[in-house]
């Protein structure tokens, strides 16, 4: 498992380091990040509202496997919205700061990693992995 994670990270890093002839612009990538984060938030909200174990066991792990975000996401709609707004803000601002200081390849890698993470989380949540 760790070997495949290292492989994926190295692969994404090498992809981000390549000069692509028709790479999307920063605005397009930002819109892709917003779309994938929104899809992840909607899917997580959908799964949290359909959690059947909540009345029996309030601390049941029904829709969120990430232990860091679970503390915020499983508390209610306001906390879920706040968490995803904060997470998306960090994913959008960190590459801008890195670009400002000349770390363009790292900024591009973080942008694509954020899109992939949110899209993967949305796909897993929409698949209804808890039921």
SSE topology sketch:
Elements (H helix, E strand, L loop, with lengths): L1 H16 L8 H24 L17 H7 L3 H24 L3 H23 L5
Envelope shape: globular
Briefly note the structural class of the backbone.
Answer: mainly alpha
Low-confidence stretches: none
Q: Cα distance, first to last residue? A: 24 Å
**Amount of beta strand:** under 5%
Q: How many strands in all? A: 0
* Estimated radius of gyration: 17 Å
In helices, the fraction of residues equals over 70%
Largest sheet: none
The overall average pLDDT, rounded, is 78
Number of helices: 5
Number of domains: 1
Features:
single chain; 131 residues; mainly alpha; globular
Please give a structural write-up:
This protein has helices at 2-17, 26-49, 67-73, 77-100, 104-126. The protein has 5 helices and no strands. α1 (2-17) packs across α5 (104-126), α2 packs antiparallel against α4 (77-100) and α2 packs parallel to α5. It has one domain. The protein has 131 residues and is mainly alpha-helical.
Describe what is shown at a glance.
This protein has 131 residues and is mainly alpha-helical. It has one domain (25-126).
């Amino acid at each position: 498992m760790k070997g495949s994670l290292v492989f994926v990270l190295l692969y994404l890093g090498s992809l981000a380091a390549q000069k692509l002839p028709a790479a999307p612009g920063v605005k397009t990538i930002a819109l892709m990040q917003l779309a994938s984060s929104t899809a992840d938030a909607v899917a997580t909200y959908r799964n949290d509202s359909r959690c059947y174990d909540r009345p029996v066991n309030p601390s049941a792990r029904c829709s969120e496997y990430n232990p860091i975000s679970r503390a915020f996401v499983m508390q209610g709609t306001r906390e879920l919205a706040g968490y995803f707004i904060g997470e998306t803000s960090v994913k959008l601002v960190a590459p801008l700061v890195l670009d400002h200081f000349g770390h363009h390849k790292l900024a591009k890698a973080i942008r694509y990693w954020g899109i992939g993470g949110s899209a993967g989380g949305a796909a897993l949540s929409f698949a209804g992995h808890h039921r």
